[in-house]
Design goal:
Chains A, B: Residues 210-267 form the CBS domain. Chains A, B: One of its GO terms (molecular function) is magnesium ion transmembrane transporter activity. Chains A, B: It comes from Candidatus Chromulinivorax destructor. Two copies of one chain form a homodimer. Helix content of chain A is 64%, strand content 5%. The first copy, chain A, is mostly helical and 455 residues long. Chain A has three domains: 8-141, MgtE N-terminal fold; 154-269, CBS-domain, CATH 3.10.580.10; 305-454, Tetracycline Repressor, domain 2 (Orthogonal Bundle), CATH 1.10.357. In chain A, the strands form two sheets. Chain A has a three-stranded mixed beta sheet with strand order 1-2-3. In chain A, helix 15 crosses helix 16. The longest helix of chain A is centred in the last third of the chain and has 31 residues, at 358-388.
Chain lengths: 455, 455
């Protein structure tokens, strides 16, 4: 009786525990474990290899069956891919490249030196080579960069019977999906059929007579985040990619959609916190991360040091009482602007907030901000007056706080919208930059109000 | 010649512009526009209705064809769903409920009062009613709460021919996917077949002989975020849901997966910024949002006011020079801890950071934090000394800054991990809470170092 689901993680934990014995591949246990590993899911094997020392990973990789090598390879981290590739002998390397999809090979080529690239291209057949070279012209985060080109498509003058007869000849080299896109004789997209149509319609039916509408068509240079949001909106898990002449170039698959959604979600969070690096965090060297994050922190530090100039110039106004509330005011401004900007930025990035509703949402945030500023001013007055019994001082602190909170909501909601108008990604370091602007503005408001009321 | 893709957005913009004329439904233009609207994509129609005043949306909804009403209805915002439902006459309401899937009806029931619920249940057939009631026991964000129960499944003793003959009888009431899950006679999951197997295998083949392994099986009470991460990991766009006896209960579809990924990404961002409300932002009243965000801000304000106590008690030490850098130190701490915590929290939530690599990543963050603290301390010293030529003062500021930066990275990376250990969602208000803790700690460090060096 077959196992319904692979119990791969237990096997792989076992391999990780006995990794030195396994890679030697001499003991009986090692042979059993390697045999079992070849039955595990490729994603789990890749995860194991990504967590091991790279010398062990390479040895393990060489012990995999050839078909498994191909599946596992494209799930490895970039650095490990490069190491594995250089460890393969030319027969294995040739096997890997010949059995990969053109779009997989294209992604791989970004990792290679010009020399390695030339060697790899030599291995490929002429047709594959042309396909790979034509794919290399597309930006990696455009439809052209993420589409799958080895997908089964059909022509509208085919009958159902002819289509069914074709399928076994096209597979497994080309992938089959439930939505099969249909073209005319010039390879222009004309619609789609569902896989089940081939089962349920009579054999002599021409595909042109059973075409369905395509809910969403991606243009080849369209950005992947926009495509993913549109596909989610239209509830479709595959989408065809066409060029400006409506020629069908490839298909964005459900797996790619999921991958893009996950990566874009990660990018948004990292960008908003100012910790974004262009590659994955796990694949970037510590030095690049320190440089990238360090530059941002240094810029913010220097801008923020403006607060010291403001505080210095209001030195005479600032009693010890007023000084003691500086950190509280600054912090509340950051918290409030962060709440608002997260909603606006995430909404714009996911497409939930768009031109049709942005004004409604901004008006709503202003109302929320106004209410919050009154609430917080009252609480601050109570807290400060209860502790210090200094009426005008409490007025200065709470009035400043109220104004700062309202300004934070105003900036936190309007700034992302303005940035987007100027085609700057609103997620970029929104959190720290907004907090810094609000700090400077907040300190100024506080000092000025203190000066007006107490002097 | 049919249109390949619906040009629905133009039509809908047109309707939005002439909405008052359209809902009157008297002019020729209105009739043409309504005719065209019924050809648009249901997701676009729902988006239009969600952006209009609700009285117009209800009138537009009533002008839709019955099939379209069902598709559009489940895409509407909660409040609008409720309004539309109460505007339907009993024939339309009955049509809507009878043609909905059991899981759609279950989601709907969360919106109704007990009385309305009873009326709706009355409309359903006995079998549907039982299905709906059994679904209502599952938590909305568990596998049971998001699974689709009206999905075609087959039995292992069926032949390919029998399966093909069954399909037209099961559709369209039940959905067909490319992965068709197969059970034994007791409804226990035994594997899956692909839709194309029914096309390519000979008609007399028994399904039991062509079963494939299921890459991932969800348990009925498993959390939706964990399921989505596993499905993405195993590159599968559908997953079967089973109970503790391995009985097949339903299927999580690709559309649901995409929906969960998008909602969880939004939730993570909102939680991290402390602006999370349990329903969608767009479906929550302003009063609830003000209350929810206000409570958090008030708590943070009161905790943060501890800084005023610390600053007050070091009053004698704090010269005007030292005071002027308080905001800069506090802000840098917030920026640094935000960078680190975003990486750790997002990684844990997406499954990229897990038990197998957390120690490696923490060690890496400590190293990055140490390097950043030295870099920022040097920059701060240069900035402060250049401006003020006060050596020991510059030492106090830069030394404090270095220690605060390192402590921020330490807290920003370790705190999320600790929270997770205690089963608290690490995303919850991580940003503001961390910033507040770091402010208090930072102010204390600053005052104490100033006291040690300058007194």
């Amino acid at each position: 009786m077959m196992e319904i689901c692979m119990i791969s993680t237990t096997i792989l934990d076992n391999i990780a525990t006995h990794i030195q014995e396994v890679v030697l591949h001499e003991s009986t246990r090692s042979k059993i474990l390697i045999g079992q590993m070849n039955l595990a899911h490729y994603a789990d094997i890749a995860q194991l290899m990504n967590s091991l020392e790279s010398e062990y990973s390479v040895k393990l990789f060489l012990l995999l069956k050839p078909e498994m090598q191909i599946s596992v390879f494209y799930e490895l981290q970039t650095a490990l891919m490069r190491t594995v590739l250089s460890a393969l002998n030319s027969a294995d390397k040739s096997n890997l490249l010949k059995n990969s999809h053109a779009d997989q090979i294209t992604d791989l080529f970004d990792l290679l030196s010009d020399e390695e690239l030339a060697t790899c291209l030599d291995i490929l057949h002429k047709k594959d080579r042309e396909q790979v070279l034509s794919l290399m012209q597309f930006a990696p985060d455009s439809a052209g960069g993420i589409m799958n080109v080895d997908v089964i498509t059909l022509m509208q003058n085919f009958t159902v019977a002819k289509s069914v007869a074709l399928l076994p000849r096209l597979r497994p080299r080309r992938d089959l999906h439930r939505n099969i896109y249909v073209t005319d004789e010039e390879n222009r997209l004309v619609g789609l059929i569902k896989l089940e149509d081939l089962l349920l319609k009579s054999p002599e039916t021409q595909l042109r007579s059973i075409l369905r509408q395509v809910p969403f068509i991606a243009e080849v240079d369209q950005d992947q985040e926009e495509i993913a949001n549109k596909m989610a909106h239209y509830r479709t898990v595959t989408a065809p990619v066409v060029n400006e002449h409506n020629f069908l170039l490839g298909v964005i698959t459900g797996e790619t959609l999921v991958d893009v959604l996950q990566r874009e979600a990660q990018e948004d969070v990292h960008k908003m916190a100012g910790s974004y690096v262009s590659q994955s965090y796990f694949e970037t060297s510590s030095a690049s991360i320190i440089l990238r994050r360090g530059i941002l922190l240094v810029i913010l530090l220097l801008v923020e040091s403006l607060t010291s100039v403001i505080l210095g110039s209001y030195e005479a106004t600032l009693s010890a009482f007023l000084v003691s509330f500086i950190a509280m005011l600054v912090s509340t401004a950051g918290n409030t602007s962060g709440q608002t900007s997260a909603i606006i930025i995430q909404g714009m990035s996911s497409g939930d907030i768009n031109d049709s509703n942005i004004n409604k949402i901004l008006r709503r945030e202003f109302f929320i901000g106004f209410s919050l500023s009154i609430l917080l001013a009252l609480v601050a007055f109570a807290r400060v007056y209860a502790y210090h019994q200094f009426f005008w001082g409490s007025v200065v602190v709470s009035l400043s706080l109220g104004i700062i909170v309202f300004a934070s909501v105003l900036f936190g909601s309007v700034l992302p919208v303005l940035l987007k108008k100027f085609n700057i990604d609103p997620a970029f370091s929104a959190g720290p930059f907004l907090a810094t602007i609000m700090d400077i503005l907040g300190i100024f408001i506080y000092c000025y109000i203190a000066y007006l009321i107490l002097n």
